[in-house]
Structures are given as C-alpha cells and as structure tokens.
Specification:
The complex is a heterodimer of chains A (316) and B (316).
Chain A lengths: L1 H10 L6 H40 L4 H7 L15 H9 L2 H32 L5 H10 L5 H12 L3 E6 L2 E6 L6 H4 L6 H12 L4 H8 L4 H9 L4 H17 L2 H6 L22 H21 L1 H11 L4
Antiparallel strand pairs in A: 1-2
Chain B lengths: L1 H5 L8 H46 L18 H7 L2 H33 L5 H13 L2 H11 L5 H9 L16 H25 L4 H9 L4 H12 L1 H16 L3 H6 L11 H11 L3 H29 L1
Helix pairs in contact in B: 2-14, 4-5, 4-8, 4-11, 5-8, 8-11, 11-14, 13-14
The chains are: A mainly alpha (316), B mainly alpha (316).
C-alpha cells in the first residue's frame, strides 16, 4: 500500500526535469555502487582474515606466530613453515579417532534424520491421519524449547534408559546410555525444525501427483519414495546441512555424556590442549584440522548450501 | 450399509456416494494406519528426548536428585528455588545474559540485514561474498572461541592492530581478564560468528519480495532510503519476527563461548544461566538444582518469545 502511494505521488510531476534528475541519480548511483563495493570487501576482510590467521598460524612455530603479529606476515605463510604442529597434534590427542567418531556420528544423524523427519512430514502433509493438526502443533511447539534447557534433565534421563550390548555371553542389558555412541546420535535424529521444513516444502508439491500415482496402484510409501522425495532435493539439502553442522559442532552434550576417550567427538578434543604447556601453534593446527572437513564440504556444495537455506528457509 | 439405509436425507444425492462410501472408509482406515506408522519414529523420538526431559525438568526441580547417586531422589519442595534466588552468581548470570541479548539482538539482526541487502544485489562476486560471510557460521563456536581467545590476548593480534592503527597511542586492554571488557569481547566475537546465518535468513525474506515492485520504484526515481523504507522493510515482516525470536533464544542460551574462553570469569562477569546450570548439574552433579535453573530459564525464554510474538503481531 505504502509503495503505491509513493509511486503515484512521484509519477505525476516529474515529466519536465526528468532528464536532469536521471543524470543526477546516475552519478549518485555510481558513487553508491563504489561505496557498496568497498563495504562488501571490508566485510569480507573482517570475516576471512581471522580464519586465514588461524590457518597460517597452524604452520608456524609459536615464537614466529608472535613475532609475525605486528606485520602483514601474520596472514602470510612465510618464514619457518612446516607441518610440525600437525604431527604434534596427533601425538597429544587421538585426533584420527576423534575425526572418525565425528564423521560417523554426523553421517548417521544426518541420514537417519532425513528419513525419520521426511516420513513424518509426508504423513502430516499428504495423508489423512486422525489428529494430525494436534500432532503438528505439538511438534512446532517444541521449537521454542532451547536444547540447553533440556540438556541437564536429559543427562539424568539417558542415564536411566536401558541399554543393551553384545558381549561374549550374548545380549546384555545394562542401565544407562552414558558413554555410548547412541547417546550422541539418537536424541538428535527427530527434529521439529526439519519436520517443519520438509512439511513446508511438501506442501508446494502438487497433490495431483499423488493421486495419479495412486490410480496406478502405488502405495503410500512408494509415493513417498518415488514421487515426493525425488522432487525434494532443496529441502533434503537444507535439512542435511542444518543437521550436519550441529552434529559436527556438538560440544556441551558430549562433554557431559561421554567420558571414554575412544568415543569422543572432535570438539571435546580441544580440552587436551590446555593441560600442561599450551602451544598455540598446535591449538591452531587442531582447530584447522577439525574445521577443514566442514569448510571443504561447504565450499564444494556452496551454491546449494547457501541457496537452499535461502530458498526454503522461511516461507511463512 | 445399514447406516446408509437409515439415513433417508442422503438418498436423493447419494446415488454414487452410497456406492463408494464403504470403500472410502476402508482406504482412509489404511491411510490413517499407514500415516501413523510413518509418524511413529519421529513422534516417539521427540517424546523420549524432548517431552520427557521437559516434564522431568519440572519434576526434578523439586527434588534433590543427583546425577549418580545410590539413594533415590526425594521431594524437597521449593528448596532448590529458595537456594537459587539467594544465589548471587545466578543473579549475575541473569544480568549478564540480559546484557548480552540486549546488545547482540539488535546488532546482529541489523548487521545481518545490511549484509543480506549487499549480497542480494546481482553484482560481480556476489557468490564469493555470500560464501565468505557465511564461513564463520560453518566454523564451530568451539573453534571460533579458541581462535579469538588467542587474538584477545594482551599481546594478541587485536591489541597489536590497535597499537599499529593508533600509532602506539592506545594500548589495548587485556580483553578477557578485565571485568569491563570481557563481556563486550564475547559479544563482538559472537556477532562475528553468527551474523552470516541470519544474513541468509534475511536473504530468503528479501527474495520473496517481487522484483517488479523495485522496478516500478526505479522508474519513479525513488531514493535508496525510500526503496528500503516502503518496499523492503514492509516485505520482511514475517522474516523479522522469525529472526528476532531465533537470535533472542540463541543469545539467552549463551554457553560455549563462556565455557571455552572465560569459565564465567573474571569475577562472574561473563557467567550465564546455562553455564551455571551446567556447572551445578554436571560438575557438581546436582541434577535437582540444575533442573530448577533450567526451569527458571525456560520460563524466561517462554515469556520473552510470547511478548515478542505479541509485539510483532500488533505491528503487522
């Protein structure tokens, strides 16, 4: 409404000084364009340089990191460059084990999350299920509960859950999920935000497609697998990203529920660097090591990464 | 069958309907069951890991439950809350979190909007700028905290840059060890890390604004400010409330930065509600007391999001 007001108010009296105005705005526009560019570059420097600093410092001995601070050399891989910090990292921490753990935990969480949440969203979006509005409302309601408020009761709760493991004697039941892989995966599979995103996306896929498939005798699961999911690439990508990042980056949760070294994920490993003597070169090397997989994935899928969040992030 | 006979009013129109109704009932029954089956995994997991801990938080807050204890938890009434409201560190945490949220919410939302507008224009390098601005988001908060912990040192990169830029006139503070600068330092770093994510959400909102509105405005020689004020801003109302709520909840849940960088210090100047909860619930294993903190925190988050929703609804 406001737009049309501006538009009609402006169109009426312009005709005469139109040319002059056009030139002026063109000049102004160019100045704005240059200013905008400088702003973009300035911001890029601000976001990029600390990360560059981390990477470059990981290649230098501590003494040189501090020596280089006062010049541009802080951001350049020059001087005494080596991979020494990296080999020191593997001596100090079981870094390979932590990486494998994190890759496994994140991958399973992502795959299971896509399956479980899309199935639920499919039923809520396309099928007649009794009480589905109530279910959807309850699921959406969980969005306002920050994980941090649940974390402590949840630690107590997972400690009460039955767990069974395979031993030489067969299946053994024991109490408590503390110190397992499953405690790092299963609580994070179902996710209200993922269900919401899938639901929003499924609503945009024409329901006539289901009907046509049903005419051909397809069951619901086949419609899900062969009609709806193949059309949902962007939604799947978004959910994959939004599940992977917190799974890879999780810190508070494994800190509390995992005590055995062999089961720890990468983020908890940072604690090892502040025992005994701190070597900042090693800290930066470990930081680079656990960031690189995510950044590589991000850059490889950069286009779908940013665009899919942008396109399917909010529609309501 | 009998029911259709007993209902005469349906007879005139129900020629074909009478024939199909039993069949429809059967399909909707199987549809209902299939739908419930598809919903079960997600609903079960959400119930186990969100609803149960939420209810537990209520229950445990009134007990003396400990994480690992040979004795069963006993009911202690309001003891935990009495202790909580007499705890100076808890009040300090509330004030700190409030301060953090009051600065971070407008700062991060505003900067993210400016960045979204900058990368929404189709100029050369837009993809590059989007990628770079998003880079800190894919970098885990743990890594970012380590990196800035290093940069914030008295002899760290930031103070060296301050010294160079002011030609030695200004000596930077010992950021994280000074009660007046510790919180601002955490704020700056948190905005740096999180702003890219909210840029993407703003961007998704910007892309829902029809391009012809801008074209019409351009024809009328509208100033950039008017474009923003009368087209962009009204077009973003839905995105705005989403961003406000997500940044607020994220800000109130401040934990990782504190745990890695300051452990609440110096002199509790950076302690937060979640940090206090984790300290008592995990380090001291007092689940009951931690649940009480979580419960109070949850009520605060709930109140704030209800108020925010109410305010943004009135404006729209």
């Amino acid at each position: 409404m406001a737009i049309t007001e501006v538009a009609s108010a402006k169109t009426a009296p312009t005709s005469a000084p139109h040319v002059v105005l056009g030139q002026k705005t063109a000049k102004k526009k160019r100045a704005l364009g240059i200013g905008g560019y400088l702003l973009r570059i300035g911001l890029a420097v601000l976001f990029l340089f600390p990360i560059l600093f981390m990477f470059v410092s990981s290649l230098k001995p501590d003494q040189q990191i501090f020596g280089d601070l006062s010049s541009i050399a802080a951001f350049l891989p020059i001087g005494n460059i080596s991979m020494d910090n990296y080999s020191a990292v593997f001596d100090r921490v079981p870094a390979a084990r932590f990486l494998v753990n994190s890759i496994g935990i994140s991958t399973i969480t992502v795959v299971a999350g896509i399956l479980v949440n899309s199935l639920a969203a499919f039923a809520l979006s396309r099928m007649r299920v009794r009480g589905k509005t109530v279910i959807l409302t309850l699921i959406i309601a969980t969005l306002i509960v920050p994980f941090e408020t649940l974390a402590l009761p949840l630690v107590w709760w997972v400690n009460q859950l039955p767990s069974f493991e395979l031993t030489e004697l067969g299946f053994m039941f024991s109490k408590g999920w503390i110190d397992t892989y499953q405690v790092q995966i299963i609580p994070f599979v179902a996710n209200a935000f993922s269900i919401y995103l899938f639901h929003q996306y499924f609503e945009s896929i024409p329901k006539e497609l289901d009907e046509a498939a049903r005419m051909d005798g397809a069951g619901w699961f086949r419609i899900y697998r062969q009609v709806v999911m193949p059309l949902s690439g962007p939604a799947i990508a978004t959910v994959a990203i939004l599940t992977f990042l917190p799974a890879w980056n999780s810190y508070l949760w494994p800190l509390m529920v995992v005590q055995t070294e062999e089961l720890r994920p990468v983020m908890v490993g940072v604690q090892y660097f502040f025992q005994l003597n701190v070597s900042w070169g090693e800290v930066m090397a470990y930081s680079t090591l656990i960031t690189l997989p995510v950044v590589a994935l991000f850059i490889a899928f950069q286009r779908s990464f940013v665009n899919s969040i942008a396109s399917s992030g909010v529609k309501g | 069958m009998t029911s259709t006979i007993e209902r005469p009013p349906a007879a005139p129109v129900a020629g074909p309907a009478r024939h199909t109704r039993p069949k429809r009932d059967r399909t909707s029954k199987t549809e209902n069951l299939a739908g419930l089956a598809m919903l079960t995994p997600a609903v079960l997991l959400l119930a186990l890991f969100i609803f149960v801990p939420a209810i537990l938080a209520f229950g445990l807050a009134f007990t003396n439950a400990r994480l690992i204890s040979p004795y069963p938890a006993t009911f202690v009434g309001l003891d935990n809350f009495v202790r909580l409201f007499a705890d100076a560190a808890f009040f300090r945490a509330l004030i700190n979190v409030g301060y953090f949220a009051l600065v971070v919410v407008p700062l991060q939302a505003g900067l993210a909007l400016v960045m979204a507008i900058l990368v929404n224009k189709k100029v050369k390098g837009t993809t590059f700028f989007r990628t770079v601005y998003f880079l800190p988001v894919v970098t885990s908060m743990v890594v970012v905290s380590l990196l800035w912990l290093f940069m914030y040192r008295q002899d760290g990169l930031i103070n060296v840059i301050i010294d160079r830029v002011t030609l030695g006139l200004v000596t930077g503070p010992d950021w994280l060890n000074d009660t007046t600068t510790s919180m601002p330092a955490i704020i700056l770093m948190s905005v740096w890390q999180g702003v890219g994510f909210h840029m993407i959400i703003w961007l998704s909102g910007l892309q829902t604004i029809p391009a012809d509105l801008y074209e019409a405005a351009d024809l009328d020689g509208v100033s950039p400010w008017q474009r923003f004020r009368y087209i962009t801003w009204p077009g973003l109302s839905a995105t705005r409330s989403l961003i406000l709520v997500t940044i607020t909840i994220q800000a109130l849940s401040l934990f990782t930065q504190i745990s890695v960088m300051t452990q609440g210090g110096p002199l509790n100047s950076t302690t937060t509600v979640v940090y206090e909860a984790v300290e008592s619930g995990f380090a001291q294993q007092e689940t009951g007391y931690a649940s009480a903190i979580s419960l109070v925190f949850f009520v605060i988050v709930l109140l704030i999001s209800v108020v925010q929703r109410f305010l943004s609804r009135e404006k729209a």
